[in-house]
Sequence to fold (526 residues):
Amino acid sequence: MPNPPIVVIGGGPAGSCVSTLLARRGYPVALLERERFPRNHVGESLLPASIPILQDLGVLDTVERAGFVVKRGATMIWGVDREPWSWYFSETNASNPHSYQVWRPEFDAILLENARSAGVDVREGCAATGVVFDDSGTAVAVQCGDETLPALYVIDASGQGGLLSRQLGLRQWDDFFRNLAVYGYYQGADRLQAPDEGNILIESQSNGWMWNIPLRNGWSSVGAVVDSETGQEGIRRLGARGFLDAQVAAAPQTAQMLENARLVSGPEIVRDWSYRCRELYGPGYILVGDAGCFIDPLFSSGVHLALTSATLAAAAVASVLSDPEMAGPVGQVYQQLYYKEYGHFRELARLFYSSNRTVDSYFWEARRLLDDDPSLSPRQSFIQAVAGQPPRGYERVVLSHGLAPAAFGRSVTNVEAERRRRSEHPLRPEDRPRLADGVVLQRQPVLADGDFVWGYGLVTDGHPEGLPCSGLVARLLLGLDGEATVAEVIATLCHGLEPAATQQVEQVALQALQILYIDGAICPLP
Fold:
Protein backbone atom coordinates (compact mmCIF):
# COMPACT_ATOMS: atom_id res chain seq x y z
CA MET A 1 0.00 0.00 0.00
CA PRO A 2 1.56 3.38 -1.00
CA ASN A 3 2.56 5.83 1.70
CA PRO A 4 0.14 8.70 2.35
CA PRO A 5 1.38 12.07 1.11
CA ILE A 6 2.97 14.90 3.01
CA VAL A 7 0.02 17.29 3.30
CA VAL A 8 0.74 21.00 2.95
CA ILE A 9 -2.01 23.40 4.04
CA GLY A 10 -1.87 26.62 1.98
CA GLY A 11 -0.60 27.51 -1.47
CA GLY A 12 1.11 30.85 -0.84
CA PRO A 13 4.89 31.31 -1.24
CA ALA A 14 5.69 29.21 1.85
CA GLY A 15 3.41 26.32 0.89
CA SER A 16 4.44 26.29 -2.76
CA CYS A 17 8.14 26.45 -1.89
CA VAL A 18 8.17 23.66 0.70
CA SER A 19 5.97 21.47 -1.53
CA THR A 20 8.27 21.87 -4.51
CA LEU A 21 11.41 21.07 -2.55
CA LEU A 22 9.94 17.93 -0.95
CA ALA A 23 8.42 16.67 -4.22
CA ARG A 24 11.83 16.99 -5.85
CA ARG A 25 13.19 14.70 -3.14
CA GLY A 26 10.71 12.05 -4.26
CA TYR A 27 8.08 12.41 -1.54
CA PRO A 28 4.38 12.33 -2.46
CA VAL A 29 2.99 15.79 -1.62
CA ALA A 30 -0.61 17.04 -1.58
CA LEU A 31 -1.14 20.80 -1.31
CA LEU A 32 -4.55 22.03 -0.11
CA GLU A 33 -5.43 25.61 -1.08
CA ARG A 34 -8.81 26.99 -0.10
CA GLU A 35 -8.97 29.53 -2.95
CA ARG A 36 -8.49 29.26 -6.69
CA PHE A 37 -5.52 31.08 -8.15
CA PRO A 38 -4.90 33.80 -9.09
CA ARG A 39 -6.09 35.31 -5.83
CA ASN A 40 -5.45 38.72 -4.32
CA HIS A 41 -2.82 39.16 -1.63
CA VAL A 42 -0.98 42.12 -0.19
CA GLY A 43 2.82 42.08 0.28
CA GLU A 44 4.29 43.03 -3.08
CA SER A 45 7.76 44.24 -2.13
CA LEU A 46 10.53 41.59 -2.19
CA LEU A 47 14.01 41.59 -0.68
CA PRO A 48 17.18 40.53 -2.54
CA ALA A 49 17.57 37.69 -0.02
CA SER A 50 14.64 35.97 -1.78
CA ILE A 51 16.33 35.97 -5.20
CA PRO A 52 18.65 32.95 -4.59
CA ILE A 53 15.68 30.91 -3.32
CA LEU A 54 13.62 31.79 -6.40
CA GLN A 55 16.59 30.71 -8.50
CA ASP A 56 16.86 27.38 -6.64
CA LEU A 57 13.14 26.83 -7.18
CA GLY A 58 13.64 27.38 -10.91
CA VAL A 59 11.21 30.31 -11.20
CA LEU A 60 13.55 33.30 -11.35
CA ASP A 61 13.53 33.44 -15.16
CA THR A 62 9.72 33.39 -15.16
CA VAL A 63 9.62 36.15 -12.53
CA GLU A 64 12.05 38.25 -14.56
CA ARG A 65 10.01 37.77 -17.75
CA ALA A 66 6.81 38.84 -15.98
CA GLY A 67 7.81 42.48 -16.24
CA PHE A 68 7.53 43.31 -12.55
CA VAL A 69 8.95 46.66 -11.41
CA VAL A 70 12.65 46.43 -10.50
CA LYS A 71 13.28 47.48 -6.90
CA ARG A 72 16.77 48.80 -6.19
CA GLY A 73 16.14 49.95 -2.63
CA ALA A 74 13.76 52.03 -0.55
CA THR A 75 13.03 55.71 -0.05
CA MET A 76 11.97 56.93 3.36
CA ILE A 77 10.67 60.02 5.09
CA TRP A 78 11.46 59.12 8.66
CA GLY A 79 13.45 60.37 11.58
CA VAL A 80 15.11 63.74 12.07
CA ASP A 81 15.15 64.72 8.38
CA ARG A 82 11.74 65.15 6.74
CA GLU A 83 13.29 65.21 3.29
CA PRO A 84 13.16 61.87 1.44
CA TRP A 85 16.31 59.74 1.71
CA SER A 86 17.14 56.46 0.03
CA TRP A 87 19.21 53.34 0.55
CA TYR A 88 20.20 50.84 -2.10
CA PHE A 89 20.74 47.09 -2.05
CA SER A 90 23.89 47.53 -4.16
CA GLU A 91 25.62 49.15 -1.19
CA THR A 92 25.82 45.83 0.66
CA ASN A 93 24.65 43.12 -1.73
CA ALA A 94 26.81 42.95 -4.84
CA SER A 95 25.46 39.52 -5.82
CA ASN A 96 21.80 40.62 -5.83
CA PRO A 97 21.66 44.42 -6.10
CA HIS A 98 17.93 44.51 -6.81
CA SER A 99 14.66 42.70 -6.20
CA TYR A 100 11.13 43.19 -7.55
CA GLN A 101 7.82 44.83 -6.73
CA VAL A 102 5.59 41.93 -7.74
CA TRP A 103 1.89 41.60 -8.46
CA ARG A 104 1.09 38.97 -5.88
CA PRO A 105 -1.79 37.23 -7.74
CA GLU A 106 0.61 36.44 -10.60
CA PHE A 107 3.73 35.92 -8.47
CA ASP A 108 1.99 33.43 -6.18
CA ALA A 109 0.48 31.65 -9.18
CA ILE A 110 3.97 31.25 -10.68
CA LEU A 111 5.15 29.53 -7.50
CA LEU A 112 2.05 27.33 -7.28
CA GLU A 113 2.32 26.23 -10.91
CA ASN A 114 5.98 25.44 -10.29
CA ALA A 115 4.93 23.14 -7.45
CA ARG A 116 2.43 21.43 -9.72
CA SER A 117 5.13 20.96 -12.38
CA ALA A 118 7.36 19.34 -9.72
CA GLY A 119 4.72 16.66 -9.17
CA VAL A 120 2.79 18.16 -6.26
CA ASP A 121 -0.89 17.18 -6.12
CA VAL A 122 -2.27 20.74 -5.98
CA ARG A 123 -5.91 20.87 -4.88
CA GLU A 124 -7.34 24.36 -5.29
CA GLY A 125 -10.70 25.16 -3.76
CA CYS A 126 -10.00 22.67 -0.96
CA ALA A 127 -10.19 24.36 2.46
CA ALA A 128 -8.54 22.44 5.29
CA THR A 129 -10.63 22.72 8.43
CA GLY A 130 -8.51 20.88 10.97
CA VAL A 131 -5.64 18.51 11.68
CA VAL A 132 -6.36 15.03 13.07
CA PHE A 133 -4.12 13.68 15.85
CA ASP A 134 -3.82 10.09 17.05
CA ASP A 135 -3.82 8.98 20.69
CA SER A 136 -0.08 9.75 21.02
CA GLY A 137 -0.59 13.36 19.90
CA THR A 138 0.95 12.84 16.45
CA ALA A 139 -0.61 14.59 13.45
CA VAL A 140 -1.84 11.85 11.11
CA ALA A 141 -4.43 13.44 8.81
CA VAL A 142 -6.02 16.66 7.60
CA GLN A 143 -9.73 17.30 7.42
CA CYS A 144 -10.82 18.93 4.15
CA GLY A 145 -14.59 19.23 3.89
CA ASP A 146 -16.07 15.75 4.21
CA GLU A 147 -12.74 14.11 3.37
CA THR A 148 -10.14 13.01 5.90
CA LEU A 149 -6.81 12.91 4.09
CA PRO A 150 -4.17 10.67 5.76
CA ALA A 151 -0.83 12.41 6.05
CA LEU A 152 2.74 11.20 6.23
CA TYR A 153 3.51 14.62 7.71
CA VAL A 154 1.52 17.86 8.04
CA ILE A 155 2.98 21.24 7.05
CA ASP A 156 0.88 24.24 8.06
CA ALA A 157 1.44 27.07 5.56
CA SER A 158 -2.03 28.53 6.07
CA GLY A 159 -0.78 32.10 6.48
CA GLN A 160 -2.24 34.53 8.98
CA GLY A 161 -5.32 32.32 9.24
CA GLY A 162 -3.08 29.97 11.23
CA LEU A 163 -5.05 26.72 11.16
CA LEU A 164 -2.86 24.80 13.62
CA SER A 165 -2.03 27.81 15.78
CA ARG A 166 -5.75 28.33 16.36
CA GLN A 167 -6.45 24.64 16.87
CA LEU A 168 -3.60 24.24 19.39
CA GLY A 169 -3.64 27.73 20.93
CA LEU A 170 -0.05 28.51 19.89
CA ARG A 171 -0.19 32.16 18.83
CA GLN A 172 1.41 34.82 21.04
CA TRP A 173 0.66 38.44 20.11
CA ASP A 174 3.40 41.08 20.13
CA ASP A 175 2.29 43.98 22.35
CA PHE A 176 4.85 46.38 20.89
CA PHE A 177 3.28 46.25 17.40
CA ARG A 178 -0.40 46.78 18.22
CA ASN A 179 -1.21 47.86 14.68
CA LEU A 180 -3.58 47.32 11.79
CA ALA A 181 -3.32 48.19 8.11
CA VAL A 182 -5.77 49.74 5.66
CA TYR A 183 -4.68 49.51 2.04
CA GLY A 184 -5.84 49.77 -1.54
CA TYR A 185 -4.60 49.90 -5.12
CA TYR A 186 -4.39 53.12 -7.08
CA GLN A 187 -3.88 53.81 -10.77
CA GLY A 188 -2.10 56.84 -12.17
CA ALA A 189 0.06 57.72 -9.15
CA ASP A 190 3.29 59.63 -9.72
CA ARG A 191 6.59 57.79 -9.34
CA LEU A 192 9.68 58.89 -7.47
CA GLN A 193 12.40 60.47 -9.54
CA ALA A 194 15.18 58.29 -11.03
CA PRO A 195 17.04 56.33 -9.80
CA ASP A 196 14.36 55.75 -7.15
CA GLU A 197 11.37 55.21 -9.43
CA GLY A 198 11.11 51.51 -8.49
CA ASN A 199 11.64 52.02 -4.75
CA ILE A 200 9.04 51.53 -2.08
CA LEU A 201 8.26 54.84 -0.35
CA ILE A 202 7.80 54.69 3.42
CA GLU A 203 6.56 57.91 5.04
CA SER A 204 5.96 58.34 8.74
CA GLN A 205 3.14 60.58 9.94
CA SER A 206 1.51 61.34 13.27
CA ASN A 207 -0.85 58.34 13.19
CA GLY A 208 1.74 55.79 12.01
CA TRP A 209 3.27 55.31 8.58
CA MET A 210 2.36 54.86 4.92
CA TRP A 211 3.70 52.57 2.21
CA ASN A 212 3.55 53.34 -1.49
CA ILE A 213 4.73 50.52 -3.77
CA PRO A 214 4.95 51.11 -7.54
CA LEU A 215 3.57 48.20 -9.55
CA ARG A 216 3.53 47.55 -13.27
CA ASN A 217 0.86 48.97 -15.60
CA GLY A 218 0.65 52.20 -13.61
CA TRP A 219 -0.77 50.64 -10.43
CA SER A 220 0.45 51.33 -6.90
CA SER A 221 -0.15 49.53 -3.61
CA VAL A 222 -0.77 52.14 -0.92
CA GLY A 223 -1.43 51.38 2.73
CA ALA A 224 -1.53 52.97 6.17
CA VAL A 225 -0.19 51.25 9.29
CA VAL A 226 -1.83 52.70 12.40
CA ASP A 227 -2.55 51.83 16.02
CA SER A 228 -5.08 49.00 16.18
CA GLU A 229 -7.59 50.63 18.54
CA THR A 230 -7.28 54.06 16.93
CA GLY A 231 -7.68 52.54 13.50
CA GLN A 232 -10.75 50.53 14.39
CA GLU A 233 -12.40 53.59 15.93
CA GLY A 234 -11.54 55.69 12.87
CA ILE A 235 -12.86 53.06 10.47
CA ARG A 236 -16.14 52.87 12.41
CA ARG A 237 -16.48 56.64 12.21
CA LEU A 238 -15.28 57.32 8.66
CA GLY A 239 -15.55 53.98 6.90
CA ALA A 240 -12.51 52.24 5.41
CA ARG A 241 -12.31 54.59 2.39
CA GLY A 242 -12.67 57.75 4.45
CA PHE A 243 -10.10 56.55 6.96
CA LEU A 244 -7.56 55.69 4.25
CA ASP A 245 -8.12 59.08 2.61
CA ALA A 246 -7.46 60.78 5.94
CA GLN A 247 -4.17 58.90 6.41
CA VAL A 248 -3.03 59.78 2.91
CA ALA A 249 -3.81 63.45 3.56
CA ALA A 250 -1.62 63.33 6.69
CA ALA A 251 1.43 62.19 4.65
CA PRO A 252 2.42 65.09 2.34
CA GLN A 253 4.72 63.17 -0.04
CA THR A 254 2.26 60.30 -0.45
CA ALA A 255 -0.65 62.71 -0.93
CA GLN A 256 1.27 64.59 -3.62
CA MET A 257 2.07 61.37 -5.50
CA LEU A 258 -1.60 60.32 -5.40
CA GLU A 259 -3.00 63.72 -6.38
CA ASN A 260 -3.97 62.57 -9.90
CA ALA A 261 -4.53 58.91 -9.05
CA ARG A 262 -7.78 57.02 -8.48
CA LEU A 263 -8.52 54.12 -6.16
CA VAL A 264 -9.28 51.07 -8.32
CA SER A 265 -9.35 48.29 -5.72
CA GLY A 266 -10.07 48.24 -2.00
CA PRO A 267 -9.69 49.47 0.65
CA GLU A 268 -8.94 46.28 2.56
CA ILE A 269 -8.29 45.96 6.28
CA VAL A 270 -5.79 43.66 8.01
CA ARG A 271 -6.57 43.59 11.72
CA ASP A 272 -4.30 40.81 12.99
CA TRP A 273 -0.72 41.92 13.30
CA SER A 274 2.62 40.87 14.74
CA TYR A 275 2.89 37.51 16.51
CA ARG A 276 4.88 34.34 16.77
CA CYS A 277 3.80 30.87 17.83
CA ARG A 278 5.27 29.49 21.05
CA GLU A 279 6.02 26.25 19.20
CA LEU A 280 6.68 25.82 15.48
CA TYR A 281 6.78 22.03 15.40
CA GLY A 282 5.44 18.94 17.10
CA PRO A 283 4.95 15.22 16.43
CA GLY A 284 4.15 14.90 12.75
CA TYR A 285 3.73 18.62 11.99
CA ILE A 286 5.60 21.87 11.38
CA LEU A 287 4.54 25.51 10.85
CA VAL A 288 6.03 27.70 8.09
CA GLY A 289 5.68 31.29 6.91
CA ASP A 290 2.96 33.47 8.41
CA ALA A 291 1.38 30.40 10.01
CA GLY A 292 4.30 30.46 12.47
CA CYS A 293 5.38 34.11 12.70
CA PHE A 294 4.37 37.49 11.32
CA ILE A 295 6.13 40.80 11.87
CA ASP A 296 5.24 44.39 11.02
CA PRO A 297 5.92 44.88 7.27
CA LEU A 298 8.15 47.96 7.71
CA PHE A 299 11.08 46.19 6.04
CA SER A 300 9.17 44.09 3.46
CA SER A 301 10.14 40.84 5.16
CA GLY A 302 6.99 38.76 4.53
CA VAL A 303 7.89 36.79 1.39
CA HIS A 304 11.52 36.47 2.53
CA LEU A 305 10.46 34.88 5.83
CA ALA A 306 8.00 32.62 4.00
CA LEU A 307 10.59 31.32 1.52
CA THR A 308 13.38 31.04 4.11
CA SER A 309 11.28 29.10 6.61
CA ALA A 310 9.92 26.87 3.82
CA THR A 311 13.46 25.99 2.70
CA LEU A 312 14.44 25.12 6.29
CA ALA A 313 11.21 23.18 6.82
CA ALA A 314 11.77 21.06 3.71
CA ALA A 315 15.19 20.03 5.04
CA ALA A 316 13.74 19.39 8.51
CA VAL A 317 10.83 17.23 7.30
CA ALA A 318 13.04 15.20 4.96
CA SER A 319 15.57 14.61 7.75
CA VAL A 320 12.89 13.53 10.23
CA LEU A 321 11.28 11.14 7.75
CA SER A 322 14.70 9.67 7.02
CA ASP A 323 15.65 9.37 10.71
CA PRO A 324 12.67 9.68 13.11
CA GLU A 325 15.02 9.81 16.11
CA MET A 326 16.10 13.28 14.94
CA ALA A 327 12.54 14.65 15.15
CA GLY A 328 12.86 16.57 18.42
CA PRO A 329 16.37 17.98 17.91
CA VAL A 330 15.73 18.91 14.26
CA GLY A 331 12.46 20.61 15.18
CA GLN A 332 14.22 22.60 17.89
CA VAL A 333 16.96 23.78 15.52
CA TYR A 334 14.37 24.69 12.86
CA GLN A 335 12.45 26.70 15.44
CA GLN A 336 15.57 28.52 16.62
CA LEU A 337 16.63 29.32 13.05
CA TYR A 338 13.20 30.70 12.17
CA TYR A 339 12.97 32.64 15.44
CA LYS A 340 16.37 34.15 14.72
CA GLU A 341 15.40 35.34 11.25
CA TYR A 342 12.08 36.66 12.55
CA GLY A 343 13.84 38.25 15.53
CA HIS A 344 16.24 40.12 13.28
CA PHE A 345 13.40 41.97 11.56
CA ARG A 346 11.46 42.43 14.79
CA GLU A 347 14.38 43.97 16.64
CA LEU A 348 15.30 46.23 13.74
CA ALA A 349 11.69 47.42 13.32
CA ARG A 350 11.37 47.90 17.08
CA LEU A 351 14.48 50.05 17.21
CA PHE A 352 13.48 51.98 14.12
CA TYR A 353 10.02 52.72 15.50
CA SER A 354 11.53 53.98 18.73
CA SER A 355 13.97 56.22 16.82
CA ASN A 356 11.19 58.30 15.22
CA ARG A 357 11.16 60.97 17.93
CA THR A 358 10.19 63.91 15.71
CA VAL A 359 6.45 63.18 15.96
CA ASP A 360 4.53 63.91 19.16
CA SER A 361 1.54 61.59 19.10
CA TYR A 362 0.01 58.66 20.94
CA PHE A 363 1.13 56.22 18.23
CA TRP A 364 4.83 57.03 18.53
CA GLU A 365 4.86 57.60 22.30
CA ALA A 366 3.33 54.14 22.83
CA ARG A 367 6.08 52.57 20.72
CA ARG A 368 9.02 54.38 22.24
CA LEU A 369 11.82 52.46 23.93
CA LEU A 370 13.10 54.27 27.01
CA ASP A 371 16.64 54.02 28.33
CA ASP A 372 15.35 52.48 31.55
CA ASP A 373 13.06 50.03 29.74
CA PRO A 374 14.06 46.57 31.05
CA SER A 375 12.89 44.96 27.80
CA LEU A 376 15.45 46.87 25.73
CA SER A 377 18.56 44.79 26.57
CA PRO A 378 20.63 47.10 24.37
CA ARG A 379 23.58 44.81 23.78
CA GLN A 380 21.30 41.95 22.74
CA SER A 381 19.21 44.35 20.64
CA PHE A 382 22.29 45.49 18.76
CA ILE A 383 23.53 41.96 18.19
CA GLN A 384 20.13 40.74 17.00
CA ALA A 385 19.44 43.75 14.79
CA VAL A 386 22.82 44.31 13.16
CA ALA A 387 25.96 42.65 14.48
CA GLY A 388 26.82 39.33 12.92
CA GLN A 389 23.78 39.34 10.64
CA PRO A 390 24.04 39.00 6.86
CA PRO A 391 23.23 42.39 5.32
CA ARG A 392 19.79 42.93 3.81
CA GLY A 393 20.80 46.37 2.63
CA TYR A 394 19.42 48.79 5.19
CA GLU A 395 20.56 48.07 8.74
CA ARG A 396 23.10 50.81 9.30
CA VAL A 397 21.55 53.52 7.17
CA VAL A 398 18.04 53.31 8.61
CA LEU A 399 19.26 53.43 12.19
CA SER A 400 21.48 56.41 11.38
CA HIS A 401 18.46 58.48 10.29
CA GLY A 402 16.62 58.22 13.59
CA LEU A 403 17.23 59.02 17.22
CA ALA A 404 17.80 55.62 18.75
CA PRO A 405 17.68 55.26 22.56
CA ALA A 406 20.94 56.34 24.17
CA ALA A 407 21.45 52.92 25.75
CA PHE A 408 21.34 51.33 22.32
CA GLY A 409 23.86 53.85 20.99
CA ARG A 410 26.21 53.09 23.86
CA SER A 411 25.91 49.39 23.14
CA VAL A 412 26.84 49.95 19.51
CA THR A 413 29.91 51.91 20.58
CA ASN A 414 30.95 49.40 23.25
CA VAL A 415 30.48 46.27 21.16
CA GLU A 416 32.29 47.69 18.16
CA ALA A 417 35.11 49.12 20.29
CA GLU A 418 35.58 45.71 21.90
CA ARG A 419 35.78 44.01 18.51
CA ARG A 420 38.20 46.62 17.23
CA ARG A 421 40.44 46.10 20.26
CA ARG A 422 40.43 42.34 19.75
CA SER A 423 41.25 42.75 16.05
CA GLU A 424 44.22 44.97 16.90
CA HIS A 425 45.49 42.57 19.59
CA PRO A 426 44.95 39.04 18.29
CA LEU A 427 45.44 35.81 20.20
CA ARG A 428 49.04 34.85 20.92
CA PRO A 429 50.49 31.33 20.93
CA GLU A 430 51.06 31.56 24.72
CA ASP A 431 47.47 32.62 25.55
CA ARG A 432 45.32 30.07 27.35
CA PRO A 433 41.82 30.55 25.85
CA ARG A 434 38.50 29.23 27.05
CA LEU A 435 34.90 29.64 25.94
CA ALA A 436 33.41 32.95 27.14
CA ASP A 437 30.75 32.94 29.84
CA GLY A 438 27.43 31.80 28.46
CA VAL A 439 28.95 30.28 25.30
CA VAL A 440 28.27 26.56 24.90
CA LEU A 441 29.41 23.96 22.38
CA GLN A 442 26.63 21.41 21.95
CA ARG A 443 25.89 18.39 19.77
CA GLN A 444 22.93 19.19 17.54
CA PRO A 445 21.58 18.77 14.00
CA VAL A 446 23.23 21.12 11.52
CA LEU A 447 22.38 21.91 7.90
CA ALA A 448 24.65 20.28 5.33
CA ASP A 449 23.77 20.26 1.62
CA GLY A 450 20.05 20.66 2.25
CA ASP A 451 19.76 18.07 5.04
CA PHE A 452 20.08 18.11 8.80
CA VAL A 453 22.86 15.85 10.05
CA TRP A 454 24.39 15.41 13.47
CA GLY A 455 27.14 17.88 14.21
CA TYR A 456 28.08 20.62 16.66
CA GLY A 457 26.73 24.12 17.23
CA LEU A 458 28.25 26.99 19.18
CA VAL A 459 25.60 28.88 21.17
CA THR A 460 26.47 32.59 21.55
CA ASP A 461 24.63 35.93 21.92
CA GLY A 462 24.53 36.31 18.17
CA HIS A 463 23.73 32.66 17.46
CA PRO A 464 21.23 31.32 20.03
CA GLU A 465 20.34 28.61 17.51
CA GLY A 466 23.90 27.29 17.62
CA LEU A 467 26.44 28.36 14.99
CA PRO A 468 27.29 25.19 13.03
CA CYS A 469 30.89 24.05 13.52
CA SER A 470 32.90 21.65 11.41
CA GLY A 471 34.30 18.56 13.10
CA LEU A 472 37.73 20.16 13.08
CA VAL A 473 36.53 23.35 14.79
CA ALA A 474 34.47 21.35 17.31
CA ARG A 475 37.55 19.33 18.30
CA LEU A 476 39.51 22.57 18.55
CA LEU A 477 36.94 24.17 20.86
CA LEU A 478 36.70 21.08 23.04
CA GLY A 479 40.38 21.57 23.80
CA LEU A 480 39.92 25.11 25.16
CA ASP A 481 40.04 24.59 28.93
CA GLY A 482 41.78 27.80 30.02
CA GLU A 483 44.94 25.87 30.86
CA ALA A 484 46.33 24.68 27.51
CA THR A 485 47.94 27.36 25.36
CA VAL A 486 46.87 28.13 21.80
CA ALA A 487 50.04 26.43 20.56
CA GLU A 488 49.36 23.32 22.67
CA VAL A 489 45.71 23.02 21.60
CA ILE A 490 46.64 23.25 17.92
CA ALA A 491 49.52 20.81 18.36
CA THR A 492 47.17 18.28 19.93
CA LEU A 493 44.75 18.74 17.04
CA CYS A 494 47.51 18.05 14.53
CA HIS A 495 48.99 15.02 16.30
CA GLY A 496 49.68 12.18 13.88
CA LEU A 497 49.09 14.20 10.70
CA GLU A 498 51.47 14.38 7.76
CA PRO A 499 53.53 17.61 7.53
CA ALA A 500 51.50 19.02 4.61
CA ALA A 501 48.22 18.33 6.40
CA THR A 502 49.62 19.72 9.65
CA GLN A 503 50.41 23.05 8.02
CA GLN A 504 46.91 23.30 6.54
CA VAL A 505 45.15 22.38 9.80
CA GLU A 506 47.30 24.86 11.75
CA GLN A 507 46.23 27.68 9.43
CA VAL A 508 42.54 26.77 9.59
CA ALA A 509 42.60 26.33 13.36
CA LEU A 510 44.36 29.62 14.05
CA GLN A 511 42.03 31.49 11.70
CA ALA A 512 38.96 29.97 13.40
CA LEU A 513 40.25 30.90 16.85
CA GLN A 514 40.91 34.49 15.77
CA ILE A 515 37.42 34.88 14.29
CA LEU A 516 35.76 33.49 17.41
CA TYR A 517 37.98 35.63 19.62
CA ILE A 518 37.03 38.83 17.77
CA ASP A 519 33.37 37.81 17.99
CA GLY A 520 33.71 37.39 21.76
CA ALA A 521 32.98 33.66 21.80
CA ILE A 522 36.32 32.84 23.41
CA CYS A 523 38.50 34.80 25.79
CA PRO A 524 42.22 34.42 26.54
CA LEU A 525 43.78 33.82 29.92
CA PRO A 526 47.45 34.93 29.74
Q: What stands out?
A: The first helix runs from residue 13 to 24. The CA atoms of residues 315 and 519 lie 29 Å apart.
